Structures are given as structure tokens and as C-alpha cells.
UniProtKB/TrEMBL annotation:
It is a single-pass type II membrane protein. This is Glycosyltransferase. It comes from Stylosanthes scabra. It is found in: Golgi apparatus membrane. PANTHER family: EXPRESSED PROTEIN-RELATED (PTHR46038), GLYCOSYLTRANSFERASE (PTHR46038:SF13). The chain crosses the membrane at residues 25-46. The lineage of its organism: Eukaryota, Viridiplantae, Streptophyta, Embryophyta, Tracheophyta. Belongs to the glycosyltransferase 77 family. Its main location: Golgi.
Amino acid sequence: MKAGVESNNNPLVARSGHSNLSVRWPMQILIIFVGFVLVLMLLCNYTSPLGIPVLSQYLITATTTEKNETTLEAILRKASMKDKTVIITNLNDAWAEPGSIFDVFLESFRIGNQTQHFSNHLVVINWDQKAHARCQAIHPHCYQIESKSENATFSKEAFFMTQDYLHIVWKKIDFLSTVLELGYSFLFTDTDIMWLRNPFELFYKDADFQTSCDNFSGNSTDLNNAPNTGFSYVRSNERSIWLYKFWFNSSRIYGRMHDQNAFNKIKMHPHISAMNVKIRFLDTKYFGGFCQPSKDFNQVRTMHANCCTGLQKKVNDLKILLDDWRNYMAFPEDKKQEYSRYHSWSVPKYCRF
Ligand SMILES: *[C@@H]1O[C@H](CO)[C@@H](O)[C@H](O)[C@H]1NC(C)=O
Ligand SMILES: *[C@@H]1O[C@H](CO)[C@@H](O)[C@H](O)[C@H]1NC(C)=O
Ligand SMILES: *[C@@H]1O[C@H](CO)[C@@H](O)[C@H](O)[C@H]1NC(C)=O
Ligand SMILES: *[C@@H]1O[C@H](CO)[C@@H](O)[C@H](O)[C@H]1NC(C)=O
Ligand SMILES: *[C@@H]1O[C@H](CO)[C@@H](O)[C@H](O)[C@H]1NC(C)=O
Ligand SMILES: *[C@@H]1O[C@H](CO)[C@@H](O)[C@H](O)[C@H]1NC(C)=O
């Protein structure tokens, strides 16, 4: 009996379904019509109590803020490695001039051992219009940051530690904080650092923030190390974002200092350990510089023209350094292991004085 009722019900359902269908047609036309009118009203920025102008206002603001964001975001996306990591450097006009530091920097990617492909992931931050134009002429990923005065004190070489210089270095920390917030990890590298081998292989897996040193104590977790934040690899996470905000905030107290010296002041701050930020210092054996050169040609990853002021001195010495590297690379493979026994860097030379 039950089965009979059920089979009787089926045609009933089908019939009522059929009658519903004939009602649905005008409904669908009405919905399409209303939708069409809504879109028209939106396009014409029609004002009504429905809140439509608010919606279109929202869309307009969303696209304008996005425009500012997308410029940076689009550049980061284009330059990024698969794991959302970018390499970042920054330039002013004097450093960007043909034959100056930027050219020597890019040359190091070409003659380093398998470092060429890293330049595809390099984002160059430009502080002035001239540097930006020069960057765009020779590199795919250039970003011009708005800066307080376009009036070229930045472009001059002799602006080290001036007000404008300090404005820039703190702006840089703020900018890098934005990069982290956008979800990108970065390797920040000064432009006077020569890339001779892949640096990523030697980074600590567990660190939020790792930085090169002017002088390395021999212990990578020892906060007494003298950091050189001109080469720092930072993983994007809540701890590193916090650290960059904390660092940037310290400009209220240390604003008359270089960002790196401020970092040196705050590195032992109890808030940093309380936030569990893992900081590591990189060995100058691999990440060397003129303060403390890497002694082994077979191990060196990067060399920095630190402990040197004066643009022309840096350029001269970095060119000599690249010649040293070329000589090493031209040496027979089976003799390379011995090379550092009989050869050392010819630099610092001009930078010594
Ligand atoms: C977006 O524009 C604002 C105002 O011009 C500026 O302060 C901010 O730094 C810009 N954001 C980025 C990521 O450049
Ligand atoms: C260059 O890199 C390749 C691949 O990693 C390696 O086999 C070779 O030994 C390296 N040469 C030098 C001089 O480091
Ligand atoms: C540059 O500085 C000069 C003199 O200080 C000033 O007259 C000029 O308006 C400035 N130009 C810009 C673009 O700020
Ligand atoms: C760095 O270390 C070298 C020895 O490795 C030492 O001569 C020099 O004084 C140190 N410099 C600083 C700033 O600590
Ligand atoms: C390295 O430095 C850390 C922090 O100062 C310390 O706890 C650790 O014992 C040091 N390691 C060595 C091998 O000296
Ligand atoms: C930085 O300063 C701002 C404004 O005083 C504050 O709201 C924020 O919590 C500070 N951030 C850090 C990480 O210290």
C-alpha cells in the first residue's frame, strides 16, 4: 500500500513542478530586468536610498588605492621567485650613473658562479627620477618610491648622514615593512655587494631575520655581533612584520642615526626576545666585506664594499675585486682548491685610505 501511495505521489510532484515552471519564466525575466536596471543605476552613479552611490563610491576608492598598491604589488609579483621571495636593492642617481656602482653590481651577477638568474628576481627601489630612468633602461623591475624632495640632494654623492639621507634610510625600513606585509620575503642587498655565488643555500632555515656582519664573532646567535643590515634576508611572518615596525618606531628615539646603528641599539631589547623573533648573524667567511674579507675563494658568496666611504673609491675597489674573481674563475678546476693558499683579495686598496 505504501509503495502505491509513493508511486501515486510521483506524478503529482511532476505536475506541480510543471505548473511551477510556467510561473518561473516571468520571474526570471523580472530578475534580469531588475539586475539590468541596477547595473545602469550603478554606472550612472544614481543616488537613491538603496545605498548604491555608496557602493559605487566604494568601487572607486578600491580601484584608486589598488592602483598605488598594484604598482608595487605587480612589480613584486613579476619579480618574485616561486616561494614569494624577492631580492631588493636601492639606488640614487649617483650610484645609477653608467660605469658606477649599479653597473658593477649587475656585472657581478653575470660573472658570479650561477648568479645570473637571480637578477631576474631583483627589484630596484629608486629614490629619484634620474635613477629610475636609468634603471628602467637596463633592468626589468624598477620601482620609484615617492620621496619628500625631488630636489636631488639624494642624487649627490656627498649626502651621507644628511637630513635627506636619514629620511631615506628610515623610509626604506618603512618600505620593507610594507613588502613583508604584502606577504613577500626578501633578501635586501646593498648595491655595493658583489654576488659571487648563490647566497640562499647558506641561510639558516629557522631564522626570521638574518643579516651580514661587519665583524663576525664566530657565533651566529650572539647578539654582540656587529651587524651590517645592508645584506639581510627576512622571512615574511608576523614576527618579522612586528620587528620592522618596532625598528621603524625606534626612529622616534634614534632618528638621527642610520637605520643600521639604530638596529644595533635595539637588537637586545627585551621586547624582541619576548616576541620570539629569531635573529641570526651570517659568517664573514661566506658573506665577507672590506671590514673583514672572506678568506677563501672557494667559499665566498658575497663581498661588500663596507668600511669604505667615497663613491669613486668603492667603484675602483669593486672593479679590482671583480678582476680578482675573474682570475680565480679562469684558474683550472683542479687547481681551484689550492687557490686561496697563494692568492688573496687585492682589495681594499683605494678604500684603505
Ligand atoms: C601609496 O601612496 C601613499 C600616498 O601617496 C604613500 O604614502 C604610500 O607610501 C604609497 N604606498 C606604497 C606602497 O608606495
Ligand atoms: C659553480 O657551481 C656549480 C654548480 O653548483 C659547481 O658544480 C661548481 O663547482 C661551481 N664552481 C665554483 C668555482 O664554485
Ligand atoms: C629645489 O631647490 C631650490 C632651491 O632650494 C628651489 O628653488 C626649487 O623650487 C626646488 N625644486 C623642487 C622641485 O623642489
Ligand atoms: C673587526 O675584527 C678585526 C679582526 O678580525 C679587528 O681588527 C677589528 O678591530 C674589528 N673591528 C671592529 C669594528 O670591531
Ligand atoms: C652563542 O651565543 C649564544 C647567545 O649569546 C650563547 O647562548 C651560546 O652559548 C653561544 N654559543 C657558543 C658556542 O659560544
Ligand atoms: C609602533 O608605534 C605605533 C604608534 O605609537 C604603535 O601603535 C605600535 O604598536 C608600535 N609598534 C611596535 C611594533 O612597536
